Amino acid sequence: TSGRTPLMAGNWKMNLNHQEAVVLVQKLSWTLSDKKHDHAAVEVAVIPPFTDIRSVQTLVDGDRLQIRYGAQDVSAHESGAYTGEVSASMLAKLGCSYALVGHSERRQHHGEDDALVSAKAHAAHAAGITPLVCVGEGLDVRREGRQVEHTLAQVDGSLAGFTPEQVAGLVVAYEPVWAIGTGEVATPEDAQEVCGAIRARLAETHGEEAAAGVRVLYGGSVKAANVAGIMQKPDIDGALVGGASLQVDEFGGICRFY
Ligand code: PEP
């Protein structure tokens, strides 16, 4: 066994207001206890919109839930004249364990490049938040068979400036863009090919210990019915789940894949 604790993270995207968020987290918690989920064996996290996080914190703290939570983005800046942005220290104050950085929807619709993703990842890390760094190729790149080189270039750029000790504690999510929200799941072999290449690259650039520690997730149309095959692969340490994370039974089933 790898010694890496699997992580199942639910990216809600721009769905659910703060009241709906509380309902979903409460139901998720009940579902996981019904299923006798072992939180030490598989970590569960929800990634709601910013406006929900305070309410999720109140519920998680008040009921001592073992569910962790995070944000879908974070500013690269510490504070100041950055209208509309949310800083890592603000998220840390709300008890966030994680922040997504470089999700493909932000790379596509908000022009985020690897340099900005790296700056955001450093801002999160400096505030004690684990960045969940998203990488992955689009359909054109996949058709040309260049998914590995494309994704590794994103890994190099997005993790620039991290020390080996820091890399060991990070999370990288491999999300082929053509599999996000499309129902088109990568085969376990496709996912392993790139996740294995990411770990091998980090072994080269940051050493074996960093590579052995870093958690690499797969994301792209993960469901309760397909998660087990993906989780059998040696270099896949969990899933980043979009659509299915809004359905308690689906997401509960994903967390309870073992
Ligand atoms: C995502 O947005 O990170 C994602 C993987 O979405 P979906 O599961 O809906 O494909």
TrEMBL record:
Annotated compartments: Cytoplasm
CDD domains from the UniProt entry: TIM
Gene Ontology molecular function: any one: triose-phosphate isomerase activity
Main location, first listed in the record: cytoplasm
Residues that coordinate or bind substrate: N11, W12, K13, G181, S221, G242, G243
EC number: 5.3.1.1
Pathways involved: Carbohydrate degradation; glycolysis; D-glyceraldehyde 3-phosphate from glycerone phosphate: step 1/1; Carbohydrate biosynthesis; gluconeogenesis
Keywords carried by this UniProt record: Cytoplasm, Gluconeogenesis, Glycolysis, Isomerase
UniProt keyword annotation of Cytoplasm present: yes
Complex formation: Homodimer.
The protein's name: Triosephosphate isomerase
Species this chain originates from: Nocardioides scoriae
